[in-house]
Amino acid sequence: MSTKIYVGNLPYSVTDSILESNFAEFGSVSSAKVMMDRETGRSKGFAFVEMASAEAAQAAIKALDGRSVDGRSITVNLARPREEGRGPAGYGAEGFKATRRADVGYGNGGYGGGRY
Questions:
Q1: Eight-state DSSP code of residue 114
Q2: In whole angstroms, what is the distance from residue 66 CA to residue 60 CA?
Q3: Under DSSP, is residue 59 helix (H, G, I), strand (E, B) or coil?
Q4: What CA–CA distance (Å, rounded) separates 22 from 3?
Q5: Please, where are the H alpha helices in 1-116?
Q6: How far is the C-alpha of 4 from the C-alpha of 51, rounded, in Å?
Q7: What is the pLDDT along the chain (116 residues), one digit of tens a residue?
Q8: The whole model's pTM is what?
Q9: Cα dihedral 40→42→46→47 (10° resolution)
């Protein structure tokens, strides 16, 4: 079973292949992906690495967390699952809502509407 690792505070110069080669020292790397900004094509400064075993992942975390890479102290830890319902609006279990505030919207006396 593979273990996913979060790598944060990366210099923008780090690529997928550099990341993979650095983590390969500790065991088999299933994947290494630096997150890129869609609009600019530039690195967002964080990445995810998937290691083939939990032992290799723990060894990499222990060795690399806090290490300086191009003058930046990187953060390396186990990746947490993505949280559901992040952000103030969007499509959730109860359907689409423009906002979670009850006082905003048409007919409530808030912004965009009101009573006459």
A1: -
A2: 11
A3: helix
A4: 16
A5: 16-24, 54-64
A6: 6
A7: 789 999 999 999 999 999 999 999 999 999 999 999 999 999 999 999 999 999 999 999 999 999 999 999 999 999 998 877 655 555 566 665 656 665 555 555 555 555 55
A8: 0.70
A9: 100
User: Which helix (H) or strand (E) element contains residue 73?
Assistant: strand 72-73
Token pair, residue 62, equals 């222990």
What domains can you pick out in the chain, each with its CATH number?
A: 3-78 (3.30.70.330)
CA distance 90 to 83: 14
Token pair recorded at residue 80: 């947490």
Query: Which residues in 1-42 belong to E strands, given as ranges?
Result: 3-8, 29-36
